[in-house]
Write a structure and sequence with these properties.
The complex is a heterodimer of chains A (about 240) and B (about 300).
Chain A: E1 8-10, H1 14-38, H2 43-51, H3 55-85, H4 101-114, H5 129-153, H6 155-161, H7 170-199, H8 209-212, E2 214-216, H9 217-223, H10 225-232
Helix pairs in contact in A: 1-2, 1-3, 3-5, 5-6, 5-7, 9-10
Chain B: H1 2-19, H2 23-32, E1 39-40, E2 46-47, H3 53-58, H4 88-97, H5 105-110, H6 116-124, H7 126-132, H8 142-146, H9 164-175, H10 178-184, H11 189-196, H12 198-204, H13 213-217, H14 237-242, H15 250-253, H16 263-300
Helix pairs in contact in B: 6-7, 11-12
Classes of the chains: A mainly alpha (about 240), B mainly alpha (about 300).
């Protein structure tokens, strides 16, 4: 039994999937409750706001969802630290999500393949550069949008910690940070995440991995060949 | 029963009259609600002397006789005005306002009869002093903010010029005008920056608690910001901002300036835009290239996809 390759591979455990669902829900709430504040003069903004029952409620939803997302992020970091400390998760070149020089090479190779200038696609490990970009974008967003959002939610308290020489421009910088980076995050999700996890030929209308946590072995061989070799390279099974 | 109702209905018009305006007002309005075009005054200004009777009756002052404000026309309104009928305080005030009121300075001064305290604070304000002391004719007095005196609505009515819904637009009537900004050395960017701020954006979306100009700057007794009595004078800002932001300190109140971005936010925004466009270009380009490559592989080449093996 141990020598057989199963039909499916558990890619994300239940904790990781719950973290993703929290991220997904809070992200959508934040997007829909915050969008109107970026473009208030547009007529559809008032419609968006009315979904939440007025600007006051939309503000409350936005704050709660924001804090929920930050808590989810904190949970994920604590989970990672715990998994690494107890050895449940090990750092390896072909499974890590940490960006490596190989990812830059992969990206160039992949684009050359798209353009027809190369006959072969690069081989990815557990996380391709596409996944890594998607993952670290959240960290960037948490740092920039999450932090500035906290300052904006508690302006008086935040003002106590800002140094005197910064008070004349810091709020403008924070507002720009929050709103421009939020736009970046929304466009990023719309293009990068939606294309790669929903619109792709073999994933449309969506990859079910976020619910089941599993991918098929065929898919694994195809999309994560290095991880496949690491896990099952010395085994023979249902491999055709 | 029918007979009773008929008798009652005979009295109804009178009932309406007692609630709107007197018979004398109707006498004036017989002509002054049906006049088209403008007439030229002795001084040469073109004025409109028509009043919409229905709108007047529906306004807060709809029950007034015309001569309660147009006091000099007590007897025959088309004879030269008789200032003897006008109380001295109103006549004095009117003489200070004569350059401001194109039509009837007495009527503009007559507001003081009922609204004395408010009127005095307006005269002390930056708007009032501009008219009375500097003798400017384009500064704001009562009707410039409240609208035509014949159609003034209660503040809570959405039709009121000073209703929360309209107040920014009303202030903007002057404060968004370039020529006035130049003349009085203020900036039209102030309103623009307000609208771009979180306060302004919440206001545009209809947030009930969003502050407007008057919440911080006050209104009738409005002063220039460098006047120590102004609520936005440096020394008073912590109190003014503290009305909503409990615990506001001088460090906190520095947040609101209504000024254009300084160099740090300006270049910070430019930098972020470059980053945004860079990321957009990469992700959109990548997605489009990959989509075409997939169509090529899956449709045209029927699944023959290359692989490093």
């Amino acid at each position: 039994m141990n020598n057989e390759i199963p039909k499916e591979y558990m890619r994300f455990n239940v904790t990781e999937r719950i973290q993703h669902v929290f991220m997904l829900v809070t992200f959508l709430l934040l997007t829909f409750s915050g969008w109107a504040l970026k473009y208030p003069e547009i007529e559809h903004s008032k419609g968006l706001i009315s979904i939440f029952g007025g600007p006051r409620n939309a503000g409350i939803v936005h704050r709660i969802a924001g804090i929920g997302m930050l808590l989810d992020f904190a949970w994920h970091c604590a989970y990672l630290a715990y998994a690494l400390a107890t050895g449940k998760m090990k750092l390896r070149m072909d499974t890590t999500i940490i960006p490596l020089p190989k990812d830059v090479v992969d990206a160039v190779k992949n684009i050359l393949y798209f353009l027809g200038l190369s006959k072969t696609r690069p081989e990815f490990g557990r996380f391709s550069y596409i996944h890594k970009f998607d993952y670290w974008a959240v960290f960037w967003g948490m740092g920039i949008i999450g932090l500035s959002g906290l300052f904006l939610a508690f302006p008086v308290q935040s003002s106590y910690v800002f140094p005197m020489w910064s008070v004349n421009w810091i709020w403008e910088v924070i507002s720009i940070m929050h709103s421009d980076e939020a736009l970046l995050a929304i466009v990023f999700i719309l293009f990068w995440h939606f294309y790669n996890e929903h619109l792709r030929w073999d994933k449309f209308p969506m990859s079910m991995t976020w619910i089941t946590g599993k991918i098929t072995i065929e898919q694994m061989k195809h999309e994560h060949p290095l991880e496949y070799k690491l896990e099952f390279g010395d085994k023979k099974g249902v491999d055709k | 029963m029918k007979r009773f109702l008929f008798v009652v209905s005979l009295w109804l018009p009178l009932l309406c009259l007692s609630y709107s305006a007197s018979a004398e007002t109707f006498t004036c309005l017989a002509c002054h609600s049906a006049m088209k075009g403008n007439i030229r005054t002795e001084k040469g200004a073109l004025i409109n002397v028509n009043v919409d009777g229905d709108q007047y009756a529906a306004s807060v002052h709809g029950g007034f006789d015309c001569i309660m404000c147009h006091k000099q026309f007590g007897s025959n309104p088309h004879e030269p005005a008789k200032l003897v009928d006008v109380p001295k305080n109103i006549a004095d005030l009117a003489s200070k306002l004569s350059h401001k009121a194109k039509v009837d300075p007495i009527a503009l001064a007559a507001c003081v009869e009922c609204h004395d305290a408010v009127y005095q604070s307006v005269l002390e304000s930056v708007h009032g002093k501009n008219v009375v002391e500097k003798k400017e004719s384009d500064g704001a007095m009562c009707v410039d903010c409240h609208g035509s005196p014949h159609y003034i609505q209660k503040k809570l009515s959405p039709a009121s010029h000073i209703n929360k819904k309209n107040i920014i637009k009303t202030c903007g009537e002057c404060h968004e005008k370039e020529e006035l900004a130049k003349k009085y050395n203020f900036s039209t960017e102030i309103l623009e920056k307000y609208k771009e701020s979180f306060h302004g954006k919440k206001y545009t979306l209809g947030h009930a608690n969003a502050p407007t100009c008057v919440d911080c700057h006050s209104y009738h007794d409005i002063k220039k910001w460098d006047d120590p009595k102004s609520p936005v004078a440096m020394a008073n800002r912590t109190t003014t901002c503290g009305k909503c932001h409990k615990g506001a300190t001088p460090k906190f109140v520095a947040a609101i300036t209504h000024k254009p971005y300084g160099p740090i936010p300006y270049w910070f925004e430019k930098g972020l835009i470059v980053l945004l466009l860079g990321v957009f270009t990469f992700i959109v380009g990548h997605v489009i290239l990959e989509a075409f490559a997939e169509i090529r592989d899956k449709v045209l080449n029927k699944g023959k996809e290359g692989h490093d093996e």
